[in-house]
UniProtKB/TrEMBL annotation:
Domain GFO/IDH/MocA-like oxidoreductase as annotated: residue spans: 141-262
Organism of origin: Lithospermum erythrorhizon
Superkingdom to which the source organism belongs: Eukaryota
Xref: InterPro entries: Gfo/Idh/MocA-like_OxRdtase_N, GFO_IDH_MocA-like_dom, NAD(P)-bd_dom_sf
Gene3D superfamilies xrefs: Dihydrodipicolinate Reductase, domain 2 (3.30.360.10), NAD(P)-binding Rossmann-like Domain (3.40.50.720)
Molecular functions (GO terms): nucleotide binding
Domain called Gfo/Idh/MocA-like oxidoreductase N-terminal: residue spans: 9-128
The protein's name: Gfo/Idh/MocA-like oxidoreductase N-terminal domain-containing protein
Family: Belongs to the Gfo/Idh/MocA family.
Length: 382
């Protein structure tokens, strides 16, 4: 099939948040997608978004979210809405047979996410969250190497951090500091990436125990501004830690230590450069004689990206949608399962915080559709 024969998947954006600017660009860059419509709570806001981002006049503008859902030409709805609105609008979109690309965090708790995922499954539509870094070629190459048991062995320790110094006005105006809009704060925003990265390194295997650490900071409304936690996989003997904050300098680090190698990169969420990204690793490294050095330097690997990682996310999502639309495939369960695992661990961190930093044991019976968070033998939440 030539590029002229590609049937474009039509995206509608529900909400004009800052991240929607980046994703609208990604949609225009993706070879199998087109930006079809923008909706906001008022026509004027949608119009301002279109003008500010130089969108063509062909993009339809709607002054309400329902108008977007009523448009039969919209194939996909991308939702950069406050987390508190996700259940309502993502469920409605799925019921209108719209595929759902949902910004992270996906929901305030796993029970809410399950409502969304059940609606998507019942209506045969694809679900994916907006974690763009999964779609970079670097991520795939790193996973290929990390899964090589001869090269790296078993994962033993993972450390991740995501933080930034909030810009002026952030703590007064941003939805991520308001309990009625995004009550998860830094945990749901920056922390979502850390939790996803840790589970990515563990092939989505849930930890046995999650323990939040006491070094936590909240704003006056009680929303988490900074927190950290540790994780333990009893069967594997693996441990992990993460740190997320709105108060610390920019970090996007992920370090994985295995029984026979290590892997590091410092820009896993947003690469330092759009066109390519690097990581380093060592395998079977030893100290030199007299411990005056090492027998090798870390190997540096650089991967070019044919498109920005957010455009590659759009391209992959559009490919899945077209396969469903043409009858070639069904919704890919990998993406909802990845989101649900991340949400489960996030819930466990939050539960541990609420219980005074007690360890929380996770038992996830995904095939039965229910989850228990167990603290010292007692059910702490479902």
């Amino acid at each position: 099939m030539s590029s002229n024969d590609v049937k474009l998947v039509r995206f509608g954006i529900m909400g004009c948040a800052g991240i929607a600017r980046k994703v609208s660009r990604a949609i225009t860059l993706s070879p199998n997608a087109t930006l079809y419509a923008i909706s906001s709570r008022s026509f004027e806001k949608a119009q301002q978004f279109a003008i500010k981002n130089g969108l063509p006049n062909s993009v339809k503008l709607y002054g309400s979210y329902n108008e977007l859902l009523d448009d039969d030409h919209v194939d996909v709805v991308y939702m950069p809405l406050p987390t508190s609105l996700h259940v309502k609008w993502a469920t409605l979109a799925a019921e209108r047979k719209k595929h759902v690309l949902l910004e992270k965090p996906t929901a305030l708790c796993v029970a809410d996410l399950d409502v969304i995922l059940e609606a998507c499954e019942a209506n045969g539509v694809q679900f994916m969250d907006g974690s763009m870094w999964y779609h970079h070629p670097r991520t795939g190459k790193m996973k290929e190497l990390l899964d090589d048991s001869k090269l790296f062995g078993q994962v033993k320790n993972i450390n991740s951090s995501s933080s930034f110094i909030a810009p002026e006005g952030f703590f007064e105006n941003d939805i991520r500091v308001k309990p009625d809009l995004d009550a998860l704060g830094a945990l749901g925003d920056a922390g979502w990436y850390c939790l996803g990265a840790i589970l990515w390194a563990m092939n989505q295997k849930l930890p046995t125990t999650v323990t939040a650490l006491p070094a936590i900071e909240r704003n006056a409304a009680g929303v988490i501004m900074s927190c950290s936690a540790s994780f333990h996989w009893e069967e594997d003997g693996t441990i992990a830690t993460f740190y997320c904050s709105f108060y610390a300098h920019e970090t996007m680090d992920l370090a994985t230590s295995c029984s026979n190698g290590t892997m590091h990169f410092h820009d896993f969420i947003i690469p330092f450069q759009e066109q390519s990204a690097r990581f380093s690793y060592t395998s079977d490294a030893k100290f030199a004689d007299l411990h005056v050095g090492w027998n090798m330097k870390p190997q540096e690997v650089e991967l070019a990206s044919p498109l920005p990682q957010e455009a590659m996310m759009i391209q992959e999502f559009a490919r899945l949608v077209e396969n469903i639309r043409s009858g070639v495939g069904k919704p890919d369960s990998k993406w909802p399962q990845t989101s649900r695992a991340t949400q489960l661990v996030l819930d466990a961190v939050r539960t541990s915080i609420e219980l005074g930093f007690q360890p929380v044991r996770i038992f996830d019976q995904m095939e039965y559709g229910w989850t228990n968070l167990n603290v010292d033998g007692a059910v702490a939440g479902t």
